[in-house]
Design brief:
This protein has 441 residues and is an alpha+beta fold. The protein contains 13 helices and 18 strands.
């Protein structure tokens, strides 16, 4: 057995980790308590089997590509980073990317990851046309919107519980460059931030960094980043049309002491960050896609900043009608604690595509908290606000929500469970997350 965790490094649990080298060996690895794992960037316990975990990053080959349509078939273990590097220079990028490029294609499908463009272009699963799926009962099936459609829509956002994704067929976006035309808006409080995001609905990309320790009249002060793909005619003479993605530079070599992130250090960082961003407000500039989409990828092992006990990310979505009051309440409570993350994110979402996809029309707020003190009780308190507002939590970031919170937020759970059982009547595909939230006890 091996000690395994997600990116948040909480919880840490035992699981056999298998690394098959062929699809046949993947099938042989499936037994009771198995789940697939991509690059381990789900924050909690979603990619950890209750008995065995099948690591899929060895399956990273491209099967076919049609430059006329941007349609690509590839193995599910390929990292998004490699896809971007390989096809960016050819004028193609994924339609949707999350906040890190170090995720596998299979993981991106299983979580139906969303990016800064969900409000207008939807999630990752919207651009997946087909999936080759190895079910828990031993079948290998092709699933799409037309064929085995229940399995397809249950797999999009299904957290790996419908089976092991072997291959995927998806569409890429044609682009002229790897640069983003970025515009920064400085918002003095939460109301201004939400107005700016609403006004930015016509932008392809929009996201807000939010100061989660600001209080009083400054509650929710933010920097909003709007973005569009830049054309070749916007580049300066001699600039490469597609910038090269750099490996993470200076990293965090050790687990930092638990008290490194405290009310004073976070407040100082946020003040500096807000002032630096405010200086760029009003105009536009060209930035490489890498810092725009993946700001933390430049720091290796940044999750060690939170110390050896790890951290929890709480990402919720609140329906638009009640978002202002509920988000204000959450931020006020977080600001009183003073120990939330220096990178807090507010975005607008549209409707999700999978049966268990996280997004719904409204606002999503993501906050990181070090694992210490009464944080679990505090997050239960925040969960009650989310549930009362008709919202829900993102399974790819979750490590601790209750079954009651989960069931209240996902009304299609019964349908998902029925499809899952039809694909895997013996219940072989199980993760620590499903054990905590889905499975019979």
């Amino acid at each position: 057995m091996t000690l395994v965790s997600g990116w948040g490094r909480f919880p840490v649990v035992d699981s056999d980790v298998l690394r098959p080298r062929s699809f046949a060996a993947v099938g042989e690895a499936v037994a009771a308590g198995t789940v697939a794992r991509g690059n381990g960037r789900a924050y909690g316990d979603a990619a950890i089997g209750t008995v065995r975990t099948v690591a899929m990053t060895g399956f990273d080959r491209i099967r076919s590509f049609d430059p006329a349509t941007g349609r690509i078939r590839l193995e599910a273990g390929m990292l998004l980073a490699d896809l971007i590097e390989t096809f960016g220079a050819r004028g193609f990028l994924p339609f949707v990317v999350p906040g890190t490029r170090f995720v596998s294609i299979g993981g991106a499908i299983a979580a139906d990851v969303h990016g800064k463009n969900h409000h207008c272009e939807g999630g990752f699963g919207r651009y997946v046309d087909g999936i080759l799926l190895r079910t828990g009962q031993g079948e290998v099936i092709e699933a799409s919107r037309e064929q085995n459609s229940d399995a397809f829509f249950a797999t999009i956002g299904g957290m790996g519980l419908t089976g092991i994704i072997l291959e995927a067929t998806m569409r890429l976006r044609p682009v002229e460059t790897g640069w983003i035309r970025e515009r920064v808006i400085c918002a003095s409080d939460l109301d201004a931030a939400m107005r700016a995001l609403d006004a930015g609905d016509s932008a392809t990309y929009s996201v807000a960094w939010i100061d989660c320790v600001a209080r009083g009249k400054d509650l929710g002060r933010s920097l909003i980043y709007l973005g569009e793909h830049a054309g070749k005619d916007e580049l300066t003479e001699g600039a490469a049309a597609f910038p090269v993605g750099k490996d993470p530079g200076l990293g965090v070599p050790v687990d930092l002491p638990a008290l490194t992130l405290n009310r004073h250090s976070i407040r100082a960082f946020n003040e500096m960050y807000y002032r630096m961003g405010a200086r760029r407000a009003g105009g536009s500039r060209l930035v490489s896609l890498y810092p725009y989409f993946f700001p933390l990828d430049s720091i290796a092992d940044w999750n060690r900043i939170y110390g050896r006990r790890g951290f929890l990310q709480h990402q919720c979505v609140i329906p638009e009608a009640s978002a202002r009051d509920v988000l204000g309440d959450i931020l006020e409570r977080v600001a009183r604690r003073g120990d939330a993350s220096f990178l807090a994110v507010l975005k607008k979402l549209g409707q999700g595509d999978g049966i268990l996809s996280f997004p719904l029309p409204g606002y999503t707020l993501a906050l990181d908290f070090p694992v210490r003190g009464d944080i679990l009780n505090f997050l239960d308190e925040i969960d009650r606000l989310v549930v009362a507002a008709g919202g829900r939590l993102y399974l790819a970031k979750d490590a601790r929500q209750s079954r009651a919170t989960f069931a209240a937020g996902y009304p299609a759970l019964q349908r998902f469970n029925a499809i899952r059982k039809s694909l895997d009547p013996a219940g072989n595909i199980r993760s620590k997350l499903s054990q905590r939230l889905f499975d019979e006890v």
